Amino acid sequence: MFVMDTARFSFYILCFIVRFLYYGMLGVPLHSLQQLTNKSLQVENKINLALTMDGDQSQNKRTDFKLNPDFLSSLPSEILANILVKLPIKEAVRTSILSSKWKYSWTLIPDLVFKWDIAESELIRIIDKVLLVHQGPILKFVLNSCQNVHLVAIHRWLLVLSKFGLKHLRFSNSGFYCLVPSSLFSCHKLEHLDISCGVINAPQCFQGFKFLRYLDLCGYKLLGITIEKIVSGCPLLESLTLSDFVEHGCLVIRAPNLVQLHLEGTFTNLLLETPKLISLCIFLFELPHHGLDFGPTDDGCKSKFLCTISALPRIEELKIGALFCEYLASGSIPKKLPVTFHHLKKILVYLDGTSKEVDAVDAALCIFRNAPNLKKLCLTVPSQVILEEQRITSFPFLEQLEVVKVLGFENVVSMLGFAKFILSTAPQLRKLVIHKDNINELDDGMGFLMKLASLTRLSSKAAIVFSSSSRLY
Questions:
Q1: Are 102 and 95 in contact (CB under 8 A)?
Q2: Distance (Å, rounded) from C-alpha 265 to C-alpha 282?
Q3: What residue range is the signal peptide (predicted)?
Q4: pLDDT tens for residues 358-386?
């Protein structure tokens, strides 16, 4: 029996995949690829044998060491499927001519990803044939450019996929809305659902996806159902992303196991019942024409800030845009919240210059004051926004703060005031990062640098870093 250590086995597998991709892309006929592979393996065998015998001679011993020159063809089907799944499906199918034992190996691939920009009839023919001959479970199915595929075909595929134990489904469009067939709701074992530009019309009998853990909807439209009902019907949901959406009423998210929530869209009100939420990202695209709902909430709470923020006791990471800060500031902003965010470590706040930046800053400051263990703070401040000195000095004393990143400061006085406050009040600070493409664009750029370098630093580890990257996180 041939025994091979894990490292050597991985090396041979990697050699095979590299050879296949390299010669395949150069146009070498695949029927000659097996010969190339066998020859290279024989060379490797001789090298291994020479090394083995050389080591044995030092001990006056000889050992027979033989390698099967075609051991790849005799690999277990499970291992072979794991190799082929790393290839594009078109290339995986082409491996069927490498060996008689490989003829149907590709039919065991658990992940089917179709990203081809080809004619509708050709794409439908290919997917129909793949699903017809597929033998193993299909755990992942990805289809881009659904607008090129007739609804009847997608409906047919989903019915088939539901019988294969499908767990990960992704439909992606680019600007064209596509009606998602009702057969989607027959895929009861889904764990990951990703739909872009889809019109979802759920049947009245829909009770949810009981195993769904990840839901990503981009540019979606709902018919006969609400996000509240969809989310409530997914008791195991851990990650929810809603982007490019318009919610004319109250956006209600009730998810007892939700850990990550990402919202980018337009809504008039927000109700969160997410006791386990750790990461929250909210960017309000625009205010509705009739304005935000600034009235009291249904439970009589006069401050949306209190109602929304108090529902996040375990939050660790918070990313919010200026319009959402304005939403939080509607009503009244208390000096002290009824909840302390002991777990909150990262905060990113975008000020866009179009909203009431004073209210936005006040709302953000209120969160900072109640996050005693904050370690990372990121701010984007557009050029037209000037943080007054009284706003800067009202920042709380942050004992655990380690990293501060700032993007967009144009006012030198504001930046110096902010830097002076942070450097003089953060004993654990390691880095103050200022993002600026060209420091010479600022008024008295060199003078600004000299003043910045001369500021007193409470932390001996604090460094001031200039970066041209606009990425804060």
A1: yes
A2: 8
A3: none
A4: 566 677 777 777 888 999 999 887 655 55
